[in-house]
């Protein structure tokens, strides 16, 4: 979501209605499985205490947090307008790119294990609803090459959530996956419900589902906000129009600090992250998703990868936070040092990929909060404004669970969890 106040070269899209969107899909010959509209009684549902009027919510940002929030608000009976500058899954967004890992091992943080379990359920439900494959259950192989401070603490929470896993010795893992060199690996675990998500495709699917179910989408960027009398009344858009709403949700990813500088200026820090896709040997299926799961190595650093899929190469990335990054204007060219480090790791851990050609690369960003946890809370000085951000490199998988949670917060069904509150990040006064 561009919030820097710079015009888009492609211009601004007018609001997209369901009729226009479906017609456009039909004209393009799109193969998307359309979702039937909700029953009229569901679409016209109103918030308790406001008979005869549907609450109008504007959601800014159509990434993993904003898109799912808009969809679940719509399903709760709100009238919803979703706004984004470049569109869902665009290459500047934290939700852009081809794939993301989905897993539930989260150290000692029970809340994320429970959220991941709920997210898995919701991914499956929406896949069935849309007749579209987004979640690929490959499992995840966790390899421990140093002191285990992340996997072991999660295991009781996985058992409570009904998520299956296997404990493996390095010898067991080596026999199962001979294409991996398990030297230095002290123990291993196989997380059965883990896998990968098709990120860019999922963002588009959420938007398509949202519009099909009656939502309105506008492609535009925001001009500076004006909050008066403890509330926000309207948005000034790049086409010089204004959009009024009853409530607003800002899910602008790495642009949150630009949009809400007084609240988030020092609390959201985008970092530069590099991702690489290396070519596998011709005729060799050992590194495809049919033969190898998602893998994660917990060592001095956390490295992870996704097996070859969709005709792309073998994905590898380092979870270490990179330098500060401007998601709007900086070039996205990988560094020679990053490529060299990835090659060295591949040569050691996956020997058959030594010297493999680099097929593709991505420079993306994490949208970091100070403690790496999400920010899901009400604006401290605008009672009708909510914030959904702080994905910190691990938020995509939780998208539907966050959308469901934010919809309940905004519509007054539940109160916020202190774990995600802004107050935790502010010094006591």
Describe this structure in words.
This protein has 429 residues and is an alpha+beta fold. 26% of the residues lie in helices and 23% in strands. The protein has eleven helices and 21 strands. α3 crosses α11 (399-410). The two termini are 33 Å apart.
Question: How much of the sequence is in beta strands?
Answer: 15-25%
Average pLDDT reading: 89
Major beta sheet summary: 8 strands, mixed
| Major beta sheet, strand line-up | 6-7-5-16-17-18-15-19
Q: Helices and strands: which structural class? A: alpha+beta
**In angstroms, what separates the terminal alpha carbons?**
33 Å
Name of the CATH class of the largest domain: Alpha Beta
Could you please say which CATH topology of the largest domain applies here? Answer: FAD/NAD(P)-binding domain
Give the name of the CATH superfamily of the largest domain. FAD/NAD(P)-binding domain
**Number of folding domains?**
2
What percentage of residues falls in helices of 4 or more residues? Answer: 25-40%
Question: What can be said about this structure in brief?
Answer:
The chain has eleven helices and 21 strands. With 429 residues, the chain is α+β, with helices and mostly antiparallel strands.
Give the SSE layout.
Elements: H1 18-28, H2 40-43, E1 56-60, H3 64-75, E2 79-84, E3 99-102, H4 110-130, E4 135-136, E5 140-144, H5 155-161, E6 165-168, H6 170-176, E7 187-191, E8 195-198, H7 199-212, E9 216-219, E10 227-228, E11 231-232, E12 234-236, E13 242-244, E14 247-250, H8 256-259, H9 261-264, E15 269-278, E16 294-298, E17 302-306, E18 314-318, H10 336-349, E19 358-368, E20 375-378, E21 385-389, H11 399-410
Parallel strand pairs: 1-2, 1-14, 2-9, 5-16, 14-21
Antiparallel strand pairs: 3-8, 4-8, 5-7, 6-7, 10-11, 12-13, 15-18, 15-19, 16-17, 17-18, 20-21
